[in-house]
Write a structure and sequence with these properties.
Number of domains: 1
Shape: globular
Order of helices and strands: HHHHEEHHHHHHHHHHH
Strand content: under 5%
Strand order of the largest sheet: 1-2
């Protein structure tokens, strides 16, 4: 079944941009930021204390600026006019919405409780276990917005589906992120500071979306799509640099704890890895069962598995603080995101023949 998907010629698919050198080695840069943050935190503790003190209503001003520099360039790529094409890919959209909002957050809460709250609990700092679980929940509660375009390009996914799915997820996130996080944190018996959570939604979802769409409209009106493409290309390194700078700050505050408990990062990665492969596999299998075209099923699996880790980092910092276990858990999500998602890309490409094979 075609599911209303237009065929993309091989020449056009080959012309799509792939993952950049900077993005391909993001895990390496993150690892270097870990080292830099821990080192600078030990050498310049006064500087980090001064940065931590720059807060208004529990929002760290330095981190807030960096988060905006991360998020706004990514949101500039979203054209909400593409929501009109959702009906063309309704099966693929339905699969991804089900995974993103009905499966992934709840499965992560379960995995966090089982692995962090039970199996690994004796190996973790007792006073941070609930905070670690909260960070994992925040990581899974928001579907990826930006890197999904990279993953979709790499597996020759349908660009119209990817754009419409991401735009729809962003709209849902404005309304669903806070209630979903509040529900899951409450189930995990973690106190929910609702005022801070709602402030985080406004500060890191609503306002960036509005600002990005206003800027996008002005750029398109003034110079057209070519001007927007040049702006996005110029802002790409700014976005990733802001992410890395935020990580240096996080690990500057987390350094002492990490050095004392080097096993923490590896243990936090376990539930993240399981949920990525589980959700990608479930989305891929459901798409095949529903007869969704492979060029939609591939990005559907990737969107279902990946996380909006920039938002998760920002929310964790706002809710629990720069030196919290929640902030560290979201950073682990950044650390494993690129290599894990590249492996998912490879898996869906290698199984294309199986996917498109007609049932006996």
């Amino acid at each position: 079944m075609s599911d209303g998907i237009a065929f993309v010629p091989p020449s056009e698919a080959q012309a799509r941009p792939g993952i950049s050198f900077f993005e391909r080695w993001l895990t390496l840069w993150v690892a270097l930021c870990i080292v830099a943050g821990i080192t600078l935190g030990a050498w310049l503790p006064g500087v980090f204390e001064m940065i931590a003190a720059a807060e208004v209503a529990r929002v760290n001003l330095v981190v807030a600026v960096l988060i905006w520099l991360m998020i706004v360039p990514m949101l500039l790529k979203i054209d909400f006019a593409s929501l009109g094409s959702v009906r063309e890919h309704w099966k693929g959209v339905g699969v991804t919405l089900f995974i993103n909002w009905a499966v992934k957050p709840f499965s992560m809460a379960l995995l966090g409780a089982v692995f962090i709250g039970w199996l690994f609990a004796p190996l973790l700092p007792a006073d941070q276990i609930s905070s670690y679980i909260a960070g994992l929940i925040l990581l899974a509660a928001a579907p990826c917005t930006a890197m999904v375009f990279v993953w979709s390009n790499l597996c020759d996914g349908d660009p119209n589906y990817t754009l419409s799915q991401v735009a729809l997820n962003d709209v849902i996130m404005v309304f669903a992120f806070a209630p979903l996080v509040g529900l899951l944190l409450g189930v995990a018996s973690i106190t929910v500071p609702w005022d801070t959570l709602l402030l985080s939604v406004v500060l890191y979802i609503v306002l960036p979306v509005v600002a990005a769409q206003i800027l996008r409209r002005e750029v398109l009106a003034g110079g057209g799509q070519d001007t927007l493409d040049r702006l996005l290309k110029a802002l790409g390194p700014v976005s990733l640099s802001a992410l890395l700078a935020t990580l240096v700050l996080l690990f500057g505050f987390q350094g002492e704890q990490i050095l004392a408990q080097p096993l923490v990062i590896a243990l936090l990665a376990v539930p993240i890895l399981i949920q990525v492969y589980f959700n990608a596999g479930l989305a891929y299998w459901l798409s095949k069962r529903l007869g969704v075209a492979w060029c939609v099923a591939a990005p559907a699996a990737l969107i279902g598995a990946s996380n909006f880790f920039e938002l998760a980092v920002a929310a964790a910092i706002s809710l629990f603080g720069l030196n919290s276990g929640a902030a560290l858990a979201t950073v682990v999500g950044v650390l494993v995101e690129v290599p894990v998602m590249l492996s998912v890309v490879a898996l869906v490409k290698r199984t294309r023949g199986w996917y498109e094979r007609a049932p006996a």
